[in-house]
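Moderator note: this is an archived Q&A kept for reference. The question asked for a predicted structure of one protein chain; the sequence and the answer are reproduced below.
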Amino acid sequence: MIKIDRLHINHNTRTLVDISFEIKNSLALVGESGSGKSLTLKALLGLLPKNLDLVLKAKDLQKPISIVVQNPFTALSPLTKIKNHFEVDAQRQKELLELVELDEAFLNRYPSELSGGQLQRVVIAIALSIEPKLLLLDEPTTALDSDTKDVVLKMIKDLQNKLGFKILFVTHDIESSKIICEDMAILKDGKIVESGKTLEILSSPKQVYTKTLIQSTFKNRGYRA
């Protein structure tokens, strides 16, 4: 279990994020834009801007930590073949593509020759190439259609079961969290306002803000709230 005893981000005496949480296996950190999700990820990766003050107290936050970003179309250089985005040898590249269910022929293609779903699989393979202890997912299916989105999330879950890394999944799409995360924390204005088992929160949310997120997700997916 990874335990973040305190993650505090401050700018000119203004608190931007002040949270604590545990990642037992897979945790969804859910909130709207501006809630502090991206700042949290940057803090864990050590990529916060220098003008922000950080306090990070954690237990068992083991490295390496890797990330899958939200837009695969901008994650890779369009002029560079897939194989040259990896920093591992050719044999390991083939093994990684097999993990994400892509043929080794994709190694000699350019990103522009791949679909969004294929590109995101490549990004996942690159993220796994360093054998992470913790995989950060930054809205990894935002640029994908709904069918491809669910396939990619289920694949990530299968990979976690096979390889044993932990997951922190940040998203505004609260409904998709149930595919991949056992636990959930709701983030609002840099604070966690509700946390617990994912299915329990989805079925019986306690906070009005959480209910609003659920209703918004259903509406966007064409469901009835």
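Archived answer notes: The helical segments are 37-45, 72-75, 90-99, 116-128, 146-163, 177-180, 198-203, 208-220.
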